[in-house]
Amino acid sequence: MTTHPTQPSPGVCPELTPAAPLTEEVRDRLAHPDEAELAALDAWWRADNYLTVGQIYLQANPLLREPLSPEHIKPRLLGHWGTSPGLAFVYAHASRLVRHTGQQLIYLAGPGHGGPALVGAAYLEGEYTETFPEITQDVDGLRRFFRQFSAPGGIPSHASVTTPGSIHEGGELGYALIHAFGAVMDNPDLVALTVVGDGEAETGPLEGSWKGISFLNPARDGAVLPVLHLNGAKIAGPTVLARKDPEEVRQLFRGHGYEVLEVEGDDLPGMHQRFAETLATAYGLIRDIQDRARAGEAPTTRPRWPMIVLRSPKGWTGPHEVDGTLIEGTWRAHQVPLSGVKDDPDHLRLLEEWLRSYRPEELFDEAGAPTELVTRNNPAGPLRMSASPHANGGLLTQDLDLPDVRDFEIDVPAPAVVRHESTRVLGELMKALYERNPRTFRLFCPDETNSNRIGAVFDVSDRMTMERVTEDDVKLSADGRVMEVLSEHNCHGWLEGYTLTGRHGLFATYEAFAMVSASQTIQHCKWLEEAHHLDWRADIPSLNILLSSTAWRNDHNGFSHQGPGLIQNVLQMRGDVARIYLPADANTLLAVSDHCFRSRSHVNLIVQDKQPQLQYLTLDEAREHCERGASIWDWAGNELDSREEPDVVLACAGDVVTMETVAAAQILRERLPELSVRVVNVVNLMTLARRKDHPNGMSDMFFEELFTTWQDVVFSFHGYPGAIHQLVHGRNDADRFHVRGFIEQGTTTTPFDMVVRNQASRYHLVMDALNNSQRHPRGSAELKAWCEAQLDRHEEYIREHLQDMPEVRDWVAQDPGSEVSGRPVEA
């Protein structure tokens, strides 16, 4: 595991306590702020708006202590104003709620392009300076704070991994609410307040995410409070929900199961008063639901959780008109509403008037620090949303209580002679994880837990639902903790939220449909890649993904279910995050899984099919194999003592292609014994890379020990052939690698026909070995002709008998020898 020397220690964080009981007095105080509180609320909001505008525009003169001039303006104006004042408005009120109740609360900004408002909030709370000491709370620190925004060597324009308090990169819209639900699962003291932008609400993942309340049990889980912010427009036009009749919007979300509360307007202080009352009502409903459930009044059906619909103008408090064109409340406020301020004196004047409208002299003292009027609205310590340990989940992470994987070992008396559904052992391992870690481990799967042969978890946990249960349902209850919903987006995003807040889990899905959520996988990789460079971000549990029901064994489902594309996507990610494992059998899967569940801040992609498959290694051998990442399998090859190096190397990575490689080696051993053949199996795909390209990459010496220096390598790969060529690029004579893999040839057919169609069958591999061997012993031409005849026979046989030939269908290794393990090769 890669660690950061100056990182905070896992499991060490400020003490957190549950929120105090919600008395009638507190409810009333929340709903009815007095004049002093309204003044502090409004001052905090104005200060955050000022910081947002300053980040977008200013590189100097941060508090307007002199008239604004073109030299004070950044050369490039980047950022998003339109959603920011709404985000700041909600944040100010959420902080006041936390201050009165002691509620642990995190804030997720769905319209994450409003990043300057979230960065500004962390600055006003003091957490930004604590995290980045060079950004001091004075005039000079504020100048640096403005200059860094959306600038080289600075910070991104979105709420992101560099933003204290954030667990959500808002650059790609659609996932805020999914992350929020994952964050509160098994997290009873947490509320995730989530602002959903009305443009974001048009995305498919967000539309599906509203169903999250069907999977929250108020007795043991926290709560999500969505705030749907309808400000009327996205980047270049109106939004769908903002143009709908309000009653239609109400009906839509009531149909999803929410209690809809609404706030609308732009008048002040009226909006502050109305929103405070609405937020108090929403919070009271949440606490009532939880208090009843935790007092033993378990709900028989899903509670009606609250949500808030907030209608306020896009670009609220910004320029109303510019050059006679309406800006505030329109799509024109989305990004930079005043352009050309360096060159246009009128625009420069409007910018100065805009900034001064917030009355910065009331908000920042002589030194440049936020005044007491502003900071009065801040909660204390870890209750500040920018300082919440839940938003730096590595601080809360505890190691899993892992069983000894020896308890699940499959007996392998000899290699390639017994079959087993390998993923069943993973189900047994996760069953033990559920038992030993009842609040820190969950499986997320799109209705495919049994299908992927990991259903042993149902021995100890039901599927989770808060909807009604009928007598026909099996293993389905409000007490369940196995998460099944037919949405890859929800499953993936829930696990992200779960791990980002410090818990562990696995997302299991059919291989082809992992591409539905592939963008989420990539975005999470990017988050971890950036977090790797931030010492204050503690390492979190890895995102573990099992791809089963793979391309090669979805022969019954057809072409739509056949695709290994996620491997190619993850392969592009940086080596400090991305890991891809291709275990060939059950014991290797156990060794890989044990490693992945212990790892931190990785995206671990595990690819293994669910169908019965041949078993090769004992657990000890599998562990040694995984430690190396790749090994020579002596028992499978036919290396002649008379030759210093083999004539050809047969390499493989992936379960089905490993079987084809071992079968091809046997054909060569039996029919052409004079040919010296080596078999190499690769389990950790990243070991093929050079060490300078990936931390798991093997040394040149080890690489040559496995693959020789000059001999040709016929490589049979689970995924697209180009992946292997990419990985071995830069190795000695990389052109000697001839790769067989998935080439998008598929249909509803037999298992063996899938490898034939993709030219990766044992017969193709034998012919490749003959074509690329340095020697051609007597009988080579006859063997090649026999392979071609076998392929012709296969085609005829499956059409007549609708199944594979017996010698393929029932194939096991013959006389594999007594040595099972790979040759010990030193790295």
TrEMBL record:
Keywords: Lyase, Thiamine pyrophosphate. Residues 610-812 form the Xylulose 5-phosphate/Fructose 6-phosphate phosphoketolase C-terminal domain. Its cofactor is thiamine diphosphate. One of its GO terms (biological process) is carbohydrate metabolic process. Belongs to the XFP family. Residues 34-395 form the Xylulose 5-phosphate/Fructose 6-phosphate phosphoketolase N-terminal domain. It comes from the Bacteria. This is Phosphoketolase. Gene3D superfamilies: 3.40.50.920, 3.40.50.970. Residues 369-398 are annotated as: Disordered. It comes from Arsenicicoccus cauae.
